Amino acid sequence: MQAIMYLIKRAYINKIKRAFKSIPSAILTVLGVVGFLFVFISSFKMKKAPFQSASSETIIAAVVLLIGVLLYNSFLSRDTGILTMADANFLFTGPFEKRQVLLYLLVSVAPASLMIGFFMCFYLPFLMGPALSFPKYIITLVIISLFLGVVFLSYYYIYIVDSEHTGFRKKSKTVFWAFIGVLAVIFAVMLFNNNFELRITVQKYFGSSWYNWVPLFGWTKWAISSLLGGNMLTGFIPPVCLLLASNALLGILLYNVKADFYEKTLEDSVSLQKIMDDIKTSGKADSLAFSKVKKRAVSVKFRTGASAIYSKQMLESRKMGVLSNYRELLIGLFYVGFGLIFGLNFNFVFTMVSFGALSMSLNDSWHRDFKKPYVFLIPENSFNKVIYSVLPGLVKTIINGSISITVAAIAYKLSPSAWSSYILVFLSFALLFVFAEVFTYRIIGSSSNAMVVTMLRMLFVIATCVPAFIILIIISVLSNGVPNLTQIAICMLAVNMVFSVLLAYLSKGIFEQSELME
Predict the structure, then answer these.
(1) Closest among 276, 245, 227 to 81, alpha carbons compared
(2) Which of 6, 21, 258, 510 is the one with CA 20 to 30 A from 249?
(3) How confident is the model at residue 312 (pLDDT cuts 50, 70, 90)?
(4) Are 119 and 264 in contact, with CB atoms under 8 Å apart?
(5) Which domain holds residue 425?
(6) Same domain for 200 and 57?
(7) Quick one: signal sequence residues (predicted)?
C-alpha cells in the first residue's frame, strides 16, 4: 500500500515539475493559476441575479446528464486504456500482486474525480448566483466527485471483465443507451403533453420526484438540489448514501475481479500514452484519439497530390461514430436549448454556439498530419498541403455550426437577412480561428510545455480577431454611423478571409520541415 501511495504521489509531483521546467513555462503557469483563481474567487463576490430553485435544479440536472453521457460514450466506444505505459510497465514488472494493481486503480480514482469535478463545477457560481455559497460549493464538489467516482469505477470494472469475456463492454454500452433511450422517450411524452413548451417540460422533467430515483444522474441532481434548498434530512442524505454505496459496491467488485487483464491493459496503454503525449506537447488530444475507428466499408474518392491528405481524413472520419463526427452539432444544440430554457438573448446563444464549435474544431485530427514524415514526400507545394489538411475539419465545423445557428434563428424567429449575416460572421471566424491555430504550430512547434502552447495559442487567436474590429471602427467613423448587421458580416468575412489566406501561406513551412518532426 505504501508503494502504491508513493507512485500516485510522485505522478502528481512530476506533473507539477513539468509545468515549471523552464522560465517561460513557469511564468505562464503561475499567471494561468493566478488568473484561474482570481476568476473563481470573483464568481462568489460578483453581484448576480438570483435564479429560482427550479432553474438551479435544471442547471445541475442538465450538466450532470450531459457530462455523464459524454464520459460513458467516450469510455465505452474505444479502448483508451486504464493505465499509462509508464504505470503499466512499473506495476506489471514490479513485485506487485493483481490486487495491489487493482488497489492502485481504486485509489487513483479519488484525485482524478476531484480534479475533473472541480472543472465541472467551475462555472456553477456564475450560472446559479447567490444560491451557491462557497460552503455549498465545496459540498457540491464532493457530490460531483462521488458521481464521477461511480463513472470511473464502473468503466474500470467493465474494461477488466471485457478483457477476458469479450463482448461485455459492447453489451454494457447497449444497456446504457437503452437506459438513456427510456429517459428520452419519457421526455418526449412529457413534451407532447405540455404542448411542446420546452422550458416548462424541462423544468417539470428534472423537477419531478421520479427523476430523483434515476440511478446516478437523478441521485446526483437530488443531492445537490436538496443541498441548495436546505432539505438535508429527507432530500440530501438518501442520495448521498446511494452514491457512497455505489462507489463502495463497485470498489469491492473491482478489487475482487478475477479476470486476467494484464496483456490487454499493456497493449492499450500504448494508445493511452499517445493521448497523454499529445496533451503534453500540444495541450489537447484530437477526436481520433478518443473515437473508435470502426471496421466497416465506406465510399471515399481517393485523390492524388496534396488532396490525398483530404481523402485520408475523410476515410477516417466516415469510420468514426456519430457522436464523434457531430459533437459540435450536439453541443451547439445543447446551447440553443439552454438559451431557450433560461430566456437568454440570441446574441449570447450565438456566442456560445460559435465558441463551442470553434474550440472543439481544434480537436480535429488534422494536426496529426503536421507531425507525419510522409507528407514531405507528397509531390505538391506546401501551401496546398496546408489547405487540404485542414479542409475536412473546417467544412465539418462550418456545417455543424451553421445548423446549430439555423435552429437557433428559427427558434428566436430571426429574419432571413439577420440569419444569413450571423452565418457569414461564424464562417469568417471559423476560417480565421483554424488557420490561426495552424500558424501557432508553425511558430511554436510541438516541443513546448502544454501550458505554454495553450496560453500562446489563445493569445494569438484573440490577436488575429483585432484587424476586423479595427476596420469596423474605421468604417463607422467614415460613415458617421454604426454599420448594420449585413455590413458588419461582409466586412468581417472579407478581412478574415484575407488574413486566413495570409496565415495559411505563412504556415506552409510546417510541411517543409515535417520530415524532422517524428
Answers:
(1) 276
(2) 6
(3) confident
(4) no
(5) 307-516
(6) yes
(7) none
Do 16 and 165 belong to one domain? no
pLDDT in tens, 73-131: 878 877 667 887 777 877 787 777 888 888 888 888 888 898 888 887 877 777 676 66
Q: Is residue 300 part of a domain?
A: no
Give the contacts of 313 (CB within 8 A, at least 6 positions apart): 365, 366, 369, 389, 392, 393
Cβ-contact 227, 221 below 8 angstroms? no
- Looking at the domain assignment, is residue 334 inside a domain? yes
pLDDT tens readout for residues 26-85: 776 777 677 777 777 777 766 555 444 446 788 888 889 988 888 888 788 776 678 877
How is 270-295 classified by DSSP, letter by letter? HHHHHHHHHHHHHS---HHHHS----
Q: Residue 516 has what pLDDT?
A: 42
Whole-prediction pTM value? 0.74
Give, for 457, the enclosing helix (H) or strand (E). helix 450-464
Question: Distance (Å, rounded) from C-alpha 464 to C-alpha 120?
Answer: 29
Cα–Cα dist 335/430, whole Å: 18
Coil, helix or strand at residue 447 = coil
* 239 in Cβ contact with 212 (< 8 Å): yes
- Give the number of domains in the chain: 3
Residues 314, 274 within the same domain: no
Phi, psi (deg, nearest 5) at residue 110: -60, -55
Return the higher-pLDDT residue of 131 and 222. Answer: 222
Give a yes or no: residue 105 inside a domain: yes
